[in-house]
Amino acid sequence: MSYTAETAAQGVQNVVRALEGRWKLVILFQLFGGQVRRFSDLERAIPGVSQKMLIQQLRQLEGDGVVARVVHHQVPPKVEYHLTEWGQSLCPALDALLIWAESAPPELRSRLVEVMRSHEPDA
């Protein structure tokens, strides 16, 4: 497909909107590498996330085709989440963003780290 500056910008903006949300990237990194996680495992692995917010973010990722939800019909019910093949293909793109951020000038890098720290939950 051929893009113009406008269509490329709009396409990237749409992708960023689909990934925005306080917990979506954390969820993705918990599932990269073929990880299959139960809801309770994700909840424990992501300190500070409420059950309601985790459900909401997982449903949005599922609706966008990034995460798959598997319900095992048993008592008690067992629900597992994993990345779709397309969702797993995000890993190299996010790795590239991390590498890009690491190449920032030192004064910018330290400012970004401070911003990230200010968003961490209090210990």
Structural commentary:
By secondary structure, the protein is mainly α. It has one domain: Winged helix-like DNA-binding domain superfamily/Winged helix DNA-binding domain (Arc Repressor Mutant, subunit A). It has helices at 5-19, 24-31, 39-45, 51-63, 85-88, 90-102, 106-118, and strands spanning 37-38, 67-72, 78-83. The protein has a three-stranded antiparallel β-sheet. The mean pLDDT is 89. It holds the Pfam family HxlR. It comes from Muricoccus vinaceus.
Tell me the layout of helices and strands:
Elements: H1 5-19, H2 24-31, E1 37-38, H3 39-45, H4 51-63, E2 67-72, E3 78-83, H5 85-88, H6 90-102, H7 106-118
Antiparallel strand pairs: 1-3, 2-3
Protein name: Winged helix-turn-helix transcriptional regulator
Keywords: DNA-binding, Transcription, Transcription regulation
Pfam families: HxlR
Order of helices and strands: HHEHHEEHHH
> From the helix content, strand content and strand pairing, which structural class follows?
mainly alpha
Q: Strand-residue fraction?
A: 5-15%
Number of domains: 1
Radius of gyration: 17 Å
Largest sheet: 3 strands, antiparallel
CATH class: Mainly Alpha
Give the name of the CATH architecture.
Orthogonal Bundle
Percentage of residues in helical conformation? 55-70%
